[in-house]
Amino acid sequence: MIGTALFTLLSHWRRHPGQFAMLVLGLALATALWSGVQAINAQARAAYATAAATLGQDRLDRLQSPDGRPVPLAEYVALRRAGYLVSPVISGELRAGDARLRLLGIDPLTAPPEANTPTLGDAGLDLTGFFTAPGLLLMTQDTATAALPPDLPPIRVTDTIPPGAALADIGTASRLLGQSDPSYLLVAPVQPAHLPLLATATTLQRVAPEQRADPAQLTDSFHLNLTAFGLLAFAVGLFIVHAAIGLAFEQRRATIRTLRALGLPLRSLLTAFGLELAVLGLVSGLAGLILGYAIAAALMPGVAGTLRGLYGADLPGTLSFDPAWAGAALVMTLAGVAIAAAQAMGRTARLPILATARPEAWGQASARLMRGQAMVAVVLLAASGALALWGGALITGFGAVACLFLGAALLLPVTLTALLRLAQRRARGPLGEWLLADTRQQMPGLSLALMALLLALSANIGVSTMVGSFRATFVGWLDQRLVAELYVTAPTPAEAARLHAYLAPRTDAVLPVVWADATLAGRPGAVYGQADHATFRDHWPLIAALPDAWDRLATGDGVLINEQLARFARLSPGDALTIAPGVSLPILGVYSDYGNPQAQAIVTLDRFAAIHPDIAPTRFALRIAPDRAAGLASILRDDFGLPADAVINQTQIKRFSVDVFDQTFQITGALNLLTLGVAGFALLTGLVTLADMRLAQLAPVWALGITRARLARFEWARSLILAGLTFALALPVGLALAWMLLAVINVQAFGWRLPMQVFPIDAARLLGLALIAATLAAALPALRLARISPSRLLKVFAHEA
Amino acid sequence: MSKVLEIERLSKAYGTVAVLRDVSLALAHGQTLALTGESGSGKSTLMHLAAALDTPDQGSIRLSGQEISGLDDAARAALRRDRIGLVFQQFNLIPSLSVAQNIAFQARLGGHHDPARDAMLARRLGLSEMLGRYPEELSGGQQQRVAIARALAHAPMLILADEPTGNLDEATGDAVLDLMLELVGETGAALMMVTHSTRLAARLDRRLHLSRGQLSAPNAV
Amino acid sequence: MKPSLYAALLWLIAGQATAQGFAGLGTEAAGFSIPQSPAIFDFPADHGPHPGYRIEWWYLTASLTGPDGTDYGAQWTLFRSALAPHDAQGWDGSQLWMGHAGLTTPDRHFSAERLARGGIGQAGVTAEPFAAWIDDWAMTSTAPAGADALDALRVTARGDGFAHDLALTTTGPLIFHGQAGYSVKSAQGQASYYYSQPFYSLSGTITLNDGVIPVTGTAWLDREWSSQPLSETQDGWDWVSLQFDDGARLMGFTLRDRAAPSFTAATWIAPDGQSQSYRDGALSMTPLAQSRVAGRDVPTTWRIELPDRALDVTASAINPHSWMDVSVPYWEGPVRVTGTHPGRGYLEMTGYE
């Protein structure tokens, strides 16, 4: 009996392959969207767990000679023979004319795993070639195609190397640079037990990684974006699955009723229905997984590039299959199918056998149901606001986002209905009235699809606003903070004094930077001494400040603190901060300090010198005409023998950072477009389904004297109106989402708040996209309506053939 | 008296099935005509052709002397809008519009809306108390009265009714028909009505019987 | 995922990164010297490295006993692998060195690995005075002048969670396997130079996280070098060195072959140092029980028969989980011997994938 029921249910699809394709495609797309985002996230996180910075140089301590000269080879060997885990690096610059190449020679045999030496990648494992003369140079395609010094060993292109640099075996670097002593030694973070402290075993100077933006913080932030996106994709997907299943039920309402009338027990019918949906869910889900994998694989190189760009979180550009995300995606689809099926089955069970078998809009919600939804929505939105404002934890931040989404989605039908009713009152002419009234009546049938569209649009607005704000702020901050053209670090105070004397007449300004570790408000941090100079006054952004903060700072009687410290210790301008035993100064202002996890305070050079008389500046920010910066950098490296990385050119860092963020943009942009496309598809499905049922409502209007072509235009207009109104509602939801991501979740996760910026042009473009999606979704039903044969319309009235 | 509707040698087939064969008839102003026949005899098709909802294979249809069989979609839509009133058995009202809006709809489409006329029709058809209600809130008889009001609101010259009382009980049906004939008489429009019922047919001026697509005089009056 | 350079290097140092044979030992020997018969040794020079040959090792295994009678095992190995058949000083050196250290207790097993390149002094072997080292791991001769350099050694190594420091002495002679040190490894004639010092007694300490434990025991040093020790179809070997309670010793190995019957060889060593080598087929090694180790099945109990000596013993792992978790992983640990010739020894099994 179940077999017969199943066969009958399935036979519907044989007659209507288009509907079947749409159902399967809907389920598959929902799965694909979710699983694609999941796959990228899972992959990136897995890789990130083991990823480290390029050569671990910004993570690992170094041992170097106090005088900045290379470390004698014998000293390196002696340390190894004593059992210490250190690894040599020979670095230097090769020059010929304008062509420059920074060369890093490493010893993969001793490099700590944390250094995560790059892969040979597609160059193949020509390890003998790497190790034996003439050796191999690894560099990016960009570096390889730029001007290079002559007579280099064979080049292998790989994208894991910093720009402008080449990586080689230390033997190769030694030959090319004519230097056999290591430039410095990398120190493994964990040394063997039972050994005396490294500091007692050598006179070499141990240098901790420079204080800089922690890549982990940045990559975490990036992943937070993706996680949020995954959440949004999940919600959109769930609505689409729900719509698709409701469709599968509604399209066969007549068949179901007939089956029941012919004596098929309800139980068998429901079993058959359940079997069918389970199989459908599984098949479509698997198809969606494959699709999601393809999407993720296509986007992966971009993600990999982004993370690598954020200082070397090294992950492969290819995607590996992880059962975890695949399983999660499939479970999502099946759960969505189960929830939707339960509802559909409930309706089947309640379906009166004898009622006329006329299709009616499924989910035709009564006004009471709508009011109920609206009330739940209001409660959810209130909860969202409460969680966002008073939650105080990351999890409540995500809870706020979830409540916002659910609440906004539930509120949509009620709001749209109200808006349409309002518009209807102002409508002139019978057709306008009819169009709006009819659209309002269609709401229940389209509400799920419209909710999906709302979520997709909100996600779009929210995520792009957040990423855009992030980029704009960060780039702006780089511009502000990295004002000086060059940053130079001298190996010793004596050398620094010499350097200062040399630089003073050759630059516009030499601004010493000194710092010392300090405990600030009970938290490890650093106190900086900084010159009073327009460079800082004019460019450093203060997010809160007393009047004349810079002037008062210049007198030495006050400090500036970073945002992290202000937030952590709940300090604001006017409070006092103890920066050294017995030295307490008023806080004059708070500056933003993105990406830095530590507390920081700034005082004048004089004040700093008074507190730390033993610390002399070894680091200088140089102001110089930008076109002279590169030349001076070379001179400093050549004449002063400064290591290549002791001279930092600001323009390179900025360009690199902007590239990185643009790559981030590409990925979120692609995902945004994809989500919108899927939501558009849901709308198409909804409209196509309704199209058949709506003939009964359209036929009279046609009979009363409106051409089919005009009706079709109205159908299209209806779709545009709905999309436009949904966009109008998505705008505040998206902005609220962006605010939560920036001001709640980011603060909870990282301790700094990003100022939100609104991008009206992006929003306008999104509106355009939404209307295009609505046009595309309406195109098929509208075209079919324009070309429908009159006899099909006539059938609505005819009671004979 | 000029003819409102003139049909000459009209034929229509759906696929290989000939629904109407060589049908001719004429209807003058103020005349009422009952069309009877078995199920499938082509009554509805004839109505649809007369209403410019469908196009004939052969023959001519003239409304007030104007040939309509060769008109394009837009012209036929305009014709329906302005000159024809339709009352069908399942004449679905527009569910999203209120009773008042339904009544005025066609008149407003054609730009001949006359609120006074609407009010008169509503009063005469006993709809005044339910103008703000929606079709789904009305009984079958009430719905059909709304359909009649709509069909008359724009003062059409030809009213086509297809089993207008088919879904109603006898008493209600009679009442609805009374009202319709009364109003048609007052407006001077012509009425062609399809019915199964010889009893109802007897109340109209003329009767024609359709059998297998061909017209004949009714065998019983 | 692409193998990292680091991981790939570990393969390289163990031979060549090819898919053939265990650790790539079954590959061509272009440019390198090939062992010849008869073997002619020149000591003390031959205790040192032979850069003309591709692979070479100094391989010490020790069966230890703690003060409470607990059995322990210790391993100290230095492998040399040549990228090219010559040596050079500085960063251009073509010799890669790999050290393995192991320590086995009845319920735990520790392993550690060190890598280095030759030419800069971080790792290497010198014959006079004899010393082998990589980082702070060392095997240094403490023998008096005039004695063989290997007669007395101090061996130290440390890894994550363990260390050992052993003093070894012997008065026994070096034992030459196969045809006077020319050890054939397959029916096709692949061979290595192979000699041992099997007579060490030792005392020293092992260090675990919970403290230093004084130990005594016996040890066995293998020296072997070649350029192509395995045939291409040989996937791995099972090797034992056994010290019987009566003072006699046995070295035996089985080379497992995908395409042919296994190849066996054995050396019987009498308590007085007289030795007899046995050709393929004389020794039989039969797995009796497997253990699930590191995701694979490894035979950790063996029946070993040498009918010519009326020997029929069972060797059982003291700790079946003696897995060397290094870049080219293998099983290496102490065994207890029961049967016609009770005693103890060491078992090594490679190529179990």
Shape of chain A: elongated
- The radius of gyration over CA of chain C amounts to 19 Å
Low-confidence stretches of chain C: 1-28
> How many strand units of chain A?
18
Helix/strand-derived category of chain A reads: alpha+beta
Order of helices and strands of chain C: HEEEEEEEEEEEEEEEEEEEEEEE
Which terms would index this structure?
heterotrimer, A: 801 residues, alpha+beta, 4 domains, 6-stranded mixed sheet, 13% strand, C: 353 residues, mainly beta, AttH-like fold, 13-stranded antiparallel sheet, 10-stranded antiparallel sheet, 1 helix, 23 strands, disordered N terminus
How would you describe the overall organization of this protein?
With 801 residues, chain A is of the alpha+beta class. Chain A is 61% helix and 13% strand. Chain A is built from 24 helices and 18 strands. In chain A, strands 9, 10, 11, 12, 13, 14, 15, 16, 17 and 18 form a 10-stranded mixed sheet that branches. In chain A, helix 2 (17-50) runs antiparallel to helix 21 (650-703) and helix 12 (367-390) crosses helix 13. Chain B is an alpha/beta fold and 221 residues long. Chain B has 7 helices and 10 strands. In chain B, helix 3 (99-110) packs parallel to helix 5 and helix 5 (140-153) packs parallel to helix 6. The relative contact order of chain B is 0.20. The model of chain B has no long low-confidence stretch (mean pLDDT 84). Chain C has a single domain, classed as AttH-like fold. Chain C is 3% helix and 53% strand. Chain C is built from 1 helix and 23 strands. In chain C, the strands form 2 sheets. In chain C, strands 1, 2, 3, 4, 5, 6, 7, 8, 9, 10, 11, 12 and 13 form a 13-stranded antiparallel sheet that branches. Chain C is globular. Chains in contact: A-B, A-C. The A-C interface holds A 73-74, 76-77, 80-83, 107-111, 113, 116-121, 125, 127-128, 130-133, 169-171, 174-175, 180, 192-194, 316, 318, 320 and C 1-6, 8-9, 12-13, 16-17, 83-84, 90-94, 96, 115-117, 120-122, 133, 135-136, 158-161, 163, 207.
Question: What layout of secondary structure does this protein have?
Answer:
The complex is a heterotrimer of chains A (801), B (221) and C (353).
Chain A (H helix, E strand, L loop, with lengths): L1 H14 L1 H34 L10 E4 L8 H9 L4 E11 L2 E8 L20 H5 L5 E3 L1 H5 L9 E3 L7 E5 H8 L6 E4 L10 H4 L3 E3 L7 H36 L2 H9 L4 H44 L13 H28 L16 H24 L3 H33 L3 H52 L4 E4 L3 H11 L5 E12 L2 E8 L3 H6 L2 E4 L3 H6 L4 E4 H7 L6 E5 L2 E9 L7 E6 H7 L7 E5 L2 H14 L7 E3 H54 L4 H43 L9 H27 L3 H5 L7
Parallel strand pairs in A: 3-6, 4-5, 11-16, 13-15
Antiparallel strand pairs in A: 1-7, 1-8, 2-3, 2-7, 9-17, 9-18, 10-11, 10-17, 12-15, 13-16, 14-15
Helix pairs in contact in A: 1-2, 1-10, 2-8, 2-10, 2-11, 2-21, 8-11, 8-13, 8-14, 8-21, 8-22, 10-11, 10-21, 12-13, 13-14, 13-22, 14-21, 14-22, 14-23, 21-23, 22-23
Chain B lengths: L2 E12 L2 E12 L3 E6 L5 H8 L7 E6 L2 E2 L5 H11 E5 L10 H12 L4 H10 L15 H14 L4 E5 L7 H18 L2 E5 L3 H4 L4 E6 L2 E3 L5
Parallel strand pairs in B: 3-8, 3-9, 6-7, 7-8
Antiparallel strand pairs in B: 1-2, 1-4, 4-5, 9-10
Helix pairs in contact in B: 3-5, 4-5, 5-6
Chain C lengths: L4 H9 L41 E11 L5 E12 L12 E10 L4 E9 L5 E4 L4 E4 L2 E5 L10 E8 L2 E8 L5 E2 L5 E3 L6 E18 L2 E16 L7 E11 L4 E9 L5 E7 L5 E4 L5 E10 L2 E11 L4 E7 L5 E2 L5 E10 L3 E7 L4
Antiparallel strand pairs in C: 1-2, 1-13, 2-3, 3-4, 5-6, 6-7, 7-8, 8-9, 9-12, 10-12, 11-12, 12-13, 14-15, 14-23, 15-16, 16-17, 18-19, 19-20, 20-22, 21-22, 22-23
